[in-house]
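INFO batch 0412 | record 1 of 1 | parsing
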Amino acid sequence: MLPQRPDSGERMLCRSISKYLFQVIKIDITMTTRRLFSLVISLAAPLVFAEDISGIWKHPEAPAWIEINLDEGTGTVLRNDKFPERVGREFVKDLKPDESEVNLWRGQVYAEKMGEYRKAEVSLPEPGRMEFKVKVGFVSRTIEWMRVDGVPTPPTE
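INFO prediction complete | emitting tokens
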């Protein structure tokens, strides 16, 4: 005995169910792809959107300019009108990005009063503003720098 062929109503129902299941699977695959894409973007965003601290920076109050070279992991005094003997001094060394957080670097900063390098955290709380945070025991000090295009020529006397 041969199986009976479904009538047109049953065939239409089967097609409708098949189309519905295909759409559900397609939507599920689309949603999974979107979630995966969002996850990849969120993990890669810190690497893509991190600022670069390389460049010239000025202390907002003191007449001092520094240059950060992230490729070399250093910071050098370019001009200091109050302490001209510090010009050319490498006051930052071993500067490297902190992979755990965007716009955060770690290195060593020369502490003038102590006469030695101390561990420091360098951050960009906002574009164009850099902060050095140095801790010694329970005391910490934060020094702010502003990004500038260049070092102005010193005034003539």
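INFO post-check: The beta strands are 55-58, 64-69, 74-80, 90-97, 104-111, 116-126, 129-136, 139-148.
INFO record closed
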